[in-house]
Specification:
Helix content of chain B: 10-25%
Radius of gyration of chain A: 20 Å
Strand content of chain A: 15-25%
Oligomer: heterodimer
Helix content of chain A: 25-40%
Structural class of chain B: alpha+beta
Number of domains of chain A: 2
Strand content of chain B: 25-35%
Strand order of the largest sheet of chain B: 4-10-9-8-7-6-5
Radius of gyration of chain B: 19 Å
Largest interface: A-B, 47 and 38 residues
Shape of chain B: globular
CATH class of the largest domain in chain A: Alpha Beta
Distance between the termini of chain A: 27 Å
CATH class of chain B: Alpha Beta
CATH superfamily of the largest domain in chain A: Medium-chain alcohol dehydrogenases, catalytic domain
CATH architecture of the largest domain in chain A: Alpha-Beta Complex
CATH topology of the largest domain in chain A: Quinone Oxidoreductase, Chain A, domain 1
CATH topology of chain B: Alpha-D-Glucose-1,6-Bisphosphate, Chain A, domain 4
Number of strands of chain A: 18
Distance between the termini of chain B: 57 Å
Largest sheet of chain B: 7 strands, antiparallel
Number of strands of chain B: 10
Order of helices and strands of chain B: EEEEHEEEEEEHHH
Number of helices of chain B: 4
Shape of chain A: globular
CATH superfamily of chain B: START domain
Structural class of chain A: alpha/beta
């Protein structure tokens, strides 16, 4: 089959590889009908996430048709149409039983690597480094899904793939970010990063009762999408815009009740601290660039909540912890507990409350994917979300755009 | 019990000694130090399965190759004795083992009695505080002679990590009926560096089969 492989920093290639087989009793093999590139794949592309190996198959947002199931999978059968969550959860350990699925004890074969780095290991993830399990991902024609009996969400209506694909990660991730932000009715919520997760965080903040959402980014196409949801936008790249001042101005001087950092470890800033972090990370004195996190902590109101769906990987420098303590804020974060959100969010899609496909800007074949990783990383061509049909033939230039 | 604080609705009476020497009179005891050629490893995990069932899985010695790394065969040779075979690549080591203590649902202790490995150990199963599953604690010692270091070379993991990984496999098998694995999945071309990484990540050590059919 064809699969997109990580071959080193800034290098991804399509290779012909073996088809996956059932390796464990709760496995299923899925023939992938649609898959997507996630913003967090760009962290891999940029070499920010350690323990990638040359030849790793990328991709953790995918859906498809069940091709084959292991002997202990009784709730799925060949031909079922399913969306697969990017976190792998066994369903039986004490964390799964508490519905902290992303902390599953039994799905990461390389748990010792994550224990060494983080103290304890979270669940395995598809296509996201060996520390996170080393599982082959879904930017491919087929994928093996462990614990498919627990994770796979069956789609039993004729909703098109594009409307349900994002249940595999970014819609639940944006929703959990809003839930973690502890939004009360009529709250003011600020969201940094208007990429796909930020978009769904904005939409979810409104669903959870926010009166005003302030969206912060620099890319016009993303800010426009945010405004289409009803958010007020702040373009931090504009001259004279200071995000902290903007957030005071837009909240009557109080600060947002909740701040959502949907950017994570590769934040950009043209200001001095951006240069400081870029230098420090290049010298390996710091692994992450926590510019947004600093702003979120600094700007949230007293007693407010900072929610972090954006990925952080390692050691952060100059985080204003005194401000966090001084204001008595709450911080909530972590990989998404996917299995809790998929079904309720599918119901919202079925009821027509939201159509997640509004963020798609590019539809491509697998062969076009290596190029599109670069295009998205370099923020060209107004990319908001790239969806891959792994069975499509390569299209001729220009790259398909919807 | 202390009279200073009278309201402790969930407190449990502490045994004088518990968990393979983890506590003594309510004081935490660190694991034994490595010295005189002896390596110690103590590891614990919490499993959502009752102690009796866990004891039975562990006590079924002939099934140990299902969940312990690179143990290819365990044969009962007597009421309390067994013969162990461990293989890595084309190298094999063998030893005999004897059970010293056997308390159903609670504790098993053993030691090697000749052959290529000099080791001893104990596993304790006890209800976790608040009945949140079963705490399983393993205390194992290896004598580091020529043989033990040969053993280390063979398994490709240091023996301490092997004990920790085996306990992890035991938990996964008991809780889910399988051991998570990626060996055998597809991948693109691996360069030389990826091969080195695989080794250093411990990915070259074969994951035990769990309840999958064992390839002969």
């Amino acid at each position: 089959m064809k699969a997109l492989c990580w071959m080193g920093k800034s290098k991804v290639e399509v290779h012909t590889v073996d088809e996956p087989t059932i390796l464990n009793p709760h496995d299923a093999i899925i023939k992938i009908t649609r898959t997507a590139i996630c913003g967090s794949d760009l962290h891999l592309f940029d070499g920010f996430i350690p323990t990638m190996e040359e030849g790793d198959i990328l991709g953790h947002e995918f859906m498809g048709i069940v091709e084959e199931v292991g002997r202990s999978v009784s709730n799925l059968q060949r031909g079922d149409r399913v969306v697969i969550p990017f976190t792998i959860a066994c369903g039986n350990c004490e964390f799964c039983k508490k519905k902290i699925w992303a902390a599953c004890d039994n799905s990461n074969p390389n748990a010792h690597l994550m224990e060494a780095a983080y103290g304890y290991s979270g669940s395995g993830l598809f296509g996201y480094s060996h520390m996170m399990g080393g599982y082959a991902g879904g930017q491919a024609q087929y994928v093996r899904v462990p614990f498919a009996n627990v994770g796979a969400l069956k789609i039993e209506t004729d909703l098109p793939d594009e409307k349900v694909l994002f249940l595999s990660d970014i819609f639940p991730t944006g929703y959990m970010a809003a839930e973690n932000a502890q939004i009360q009715n009529n709250d003011i919520v600020a969201v940094w990063g208007c990429g796909p997760v930020g978009q769904f965080a904005i939409a979810s903040a409104f669903m959870l009762g926010a009166a005003r959402v302030i969206a912060i980014d620099r890319l016009p196409e993303r800010l426009e999408l945010a405004r289409s949801l009803g958010a007020i936008t702040v373009d931090y790249s504009e001259e004279d815009v200071n995000v902290l001042t903007a957030l005071k101005d837009l909240t009557g001087g109080v600060g947002p009740d909740s701040c959502i950092d949907a950017v994570g470890l590769e934040a950009h800033s043209a200001q001095l601290q951006g240069i400081y972090d870029t230098v420090k990370t290049s010298l390996m004195l710091e692994t992450d660039r926590p510019i947004v996190l600093r702003q979120a902590i600094q700007s949230v109101r007293k007693g407010g909540t900072v929610s972090l769906p954006g990925v952080y990987g390692g050691l952060l420098d100059k985080v204003p912890f005194g401000s966090a303590f001084g204001k008595g804020i709450t911080m909530k974060m972590g990989q998404t507990n996917m299995h809790t959100y998929m079904k309720p969010l599918l119901e919202r899609i079925e009821k027509g409350q939201i159509d997640p496909s509004y963020i798609i800007s590019h539809r491509i074949s697998l062969e076009e994917a290596p190029e599109m990783y670069k295009v998205w990383r370099d923020k060209q061509e107004n990319v908001t979300k790239i969806v891959i049909d792994p069975w499509a033939e390569r299209q001729q230039v220009p790259l398909s755009q919807s | 019990m202390s009279q200073v604080l009278n309201e402790k609705p969930n407190i449990e009476l502490s045994p004088i000694i518990a968990s393979a020497g983890v506590t003594l009179n309510n004081r935490y005891l660190p694991p034994p130090e490595d010295k005189d050629g002896k390596l110690w490893v103590r590891a614990s995990t919490r499993i959502q399965v009752d102690a009796d069932s866990l004891y039975q899985i562990w006590r079924d010695l002939e099934s140990i190759p299902l969940w312990q790394e690179q143990i290819t065969r365990v044969t009962r040779t007597g009421e309390r004795t067994s013969h162990w075979v461990m293989r890595s690549g084309d190298k094999t080591i063998e030893w005999d083992s004897e059970i010293l203590a056997d308390e159903p649902g609670r504790r098993i202790a053993w030691r090697s009695i000749g052959g290529d490995s000099d080791n001893a150990g104990e596993v304790i199963f006890e209800a976790a505080p608040g009945n949140r599953g079963t705490m399983v604690t393993v205390l194992q010692e290896f004598r580091m002679g020529k043989l033990a270091s040969a053993w280390e070379t063979l398994v490709g993991r240091n023996p301490k990590q092997a004990v920790i990984e085996n306990l992890r496999h035991f938990k996964a098998l008991a809780e889910t009926g399988e051991i998570p694995r990626t060996q055998g999945q597809p991948h693109g071309p691996r360069g030389m560096i990826a091969g080195m990484k695989e080794s250093s990540y411990g990915e070259k050590t074969a994951t035990p089969p769990g309840l999958n059919r064992i390839a002969s």
